[in-house]
Amino acid sequence: MKTKKWIASLLTLSFLCTLVLAVPGCGDSGKGTIRVGSKDFTESLIVGEIYALALEDAGYKVDRKMNVAGSLVHTAITGDDFDLYPEYTGTALLSVLQMEMDSDPDSVYNTVKEEYAKQFGLTWLDSTQVNDRNGIAIRTEAAEQYGISTMSDLQEHADKLKLCSQGEFEQREDGLPGLAKVYGEFNFASINLYDSGLKYQVLETGEADVCPAYSTDAQLVNADKFTYLEDDKKFWPPYYMAPVVRDDALEKYPEIAEILNSVSAKLDTETMISLNAKVDIDKQEYDDVAKEFFEGNCK
Question: How far is 276 from 82, CA to CA, in rounded Å?
């Protein structure tokens, strides 16, 4: 009797192990482990997680290395702390490579792709259509009142508008001084300093009319309240997002290029604003937002 019970237990254990291995994502897929990183803000966390989900869906194990400070992320990937993360073309050109400003998106992408391969052993895969660039947001009510949709329009009507600044915009070359060289002086009716986290609240209450902004800010989902102005003279460089991958990871797992490129093709600026809003305004968790997007658009 003991022998029969022992055999039955062994068969049960064998059956359970078979079930575990049959469940997607369980056991060893044999495809290996990919280390996915991200920077420490909403947008990068969401996209990093979407890339991670796509790799898991393709059978890879993923080691998440999320939430890395922007000042450290380049050192982290070149130091082999992770295999890939989403980066921006403008950041790579100006902050990492410290090259001259360039406003042509294709030129910037080709430059950073070539230099990263040459200097760091890193590959830029296909770019998304997410362009998280510097710019100006204006109260939609004020934009409609004065017929403002571009930076040229803003310069013409600046004397009627109040600027909400965070203290550096008036000094930086990528702020008012640089804008003045391209568009002419912006003689705002007033310039007052506010914490950057309050800028859209200040606009909404009417304390100010315009503020420095990023083109994928979550609050821009409310087009009836806030309008992002067109940089019609192309002052600011493009900041298109794309996955940057270590060459040794691509050599080992060449399939991941196609996997990541297929995800990147689904992402654009309007989509990113909406995803950011779900986290920053609706207070959803970034990984839940990423999962919902992946399952609805990338499966």
Answer: 24
* Half-sphere exposure for 275 (CA within 13 Å, toward CB): 30
The DSSP symbol for 150 reads B
**Phi and psi dihedrals of 10, rounded to 5?**
-65, -40
Q: How far apart are CA 87 and CA 73, in angstroms?
A: 9
Q: Identify the pLDDT of residue 169.
A: 87
User: Model confidence over 174-217: pLDDT tens digits?
Assistant: 889 999 999 999 999 999 999 888 999 999 999 999 999 999 99
Pick the closest to residue 225 from 189, 174, 272, 277 (CA basis): 277
Q: Output the furthest CA–CA distance in the chain (Å, rounded).
A: 95
Which structure tokens are listed for 188?
A: 């705002």
- Report DSSP letters for 182-240, one per residue: HH-----SEEEE--GGGHHHHHHHTS-SEEEEETT-GGGG-TTTEEEPB-TT--SPP-B
* Range with the poorest average pLDDT among 16-20, 97-101, 225-229, 270-274: 16-20
Q: What is the DSSP letter of 59?
A: T
Does the structure show a pLDDT above 70 at 153?
yes
Amino acid at 285: E
Where do the H-state alpha helices sit in the chain? 2-22, 42-57, 73-78, 89-91, 105-120, 140-146, 151-157, 176-183, 199-205, 247-252, 255-264, 269-280, 286-297
